[in-house]
Amino acid sequence: AVVNVLEYEIQRQTELLNSGGTVARETRTWDEGRGESFSMRSKEEAHDYRFFPEPDLAPVEPGQAWIAEIKATLPELPDIKRRRYVEEYGLPLYDAELISGNREMADFFDKTLQYYKDPKAISNWLMGEVSRLNNQAETGFDKLRFSPQQLGELLAMIDNGQISTKIAKTVLEEMFASGTAPAS
After folding, report:
1. Among candidates 91, 95, 96, which has minimal Cα distance to 78?
2. Are residues 42 and 85 in the same domain?
3. Does position 80 have pLDDT exceeding 90, yes or no?
4. What SS3 class is residue 21?
5. Dihedral angle of Cα 74, 96, 150, 129, to the nearest 10 degrees
6. CB 94, CB 127: distance < 8 Å
7. What domain range is 35 assigned to?
8. Total structural domains within the chain
9. Could you give the CA distance from residue 72 to residue 79 in angstroms, rounded to a whole number?
10. What is the per-residue pLDDT across 128-164, written as a single tens digit (0 to 9) for each?
11. Is 39 left (phi over 0), alpha (psi -120 to 50) or beta?
């Protein structure tokens, strides 16, 4: 019966729209014997839905303290995070959008900043080499075998002249595969 209703309504509404009509907001019923639907009532306004309060439920009036407590436990929303990345860290909008759009990448970025203080270098490595390795392995930032601290150590080794960027990419591949620390 449901299939018949759907097929009928698809046909009815298609014909109505093709003839220049509009589909009314209404409740319809199905007559299986006649094989057609017909209007029961229109619902043009919210008051047509006839909402009634539930008498068995007590009204809920949350206090401001409880609301503040709940807000404090909510994670930072991607739009706010993106704005923070641009304003606080000076990241280009493209980088901020890409990182904030992936919760695991954003978490890894934020944690790496605790160990290495160049946000642009971190974003370059996360969006570049780390993402490349993730894509090849068909995995995500939440499955990385190395820690944000280890990535920070690797980037510091480049800054200190201990290794070149080319060697750092090779070290990163080993970190990705085994989880070993960059200095190992």
Report:
1. 96
2. no
3. yes
4. coil
5. 140
6. no
7. 1-49
8. 2
9. 17
10. 999 999 999 999 999 999 999 999 999 999 999 999 9
11. beta
Percentage of the chain beyond pLDDT 70 is 93
Same domain membership, residue 34 and residue 79? no
Strand segments (E) across the chain: 26-31, 36-42
The angle that helices 78-89 and 93-100 make with each other, rounded to 10 degrees, is 140
Angstrom distance (rounded) from CA 28 to CA 30: 7
DSSP state, residue 130 = I
Residues 86 and 12 in one domain: no
What is the model's pTM?
A: 0.65
The H or E element that residue 18 is part of is helix 2-18
The residues, ordered by sequence, that sit 6+ positions from 58 with a Cβ below 8 Å of its Cβ are: none
Q: How far apart are CA 151 and CA 127, in angstroms?
A: 13
Residue 39, strand partner residues: 28
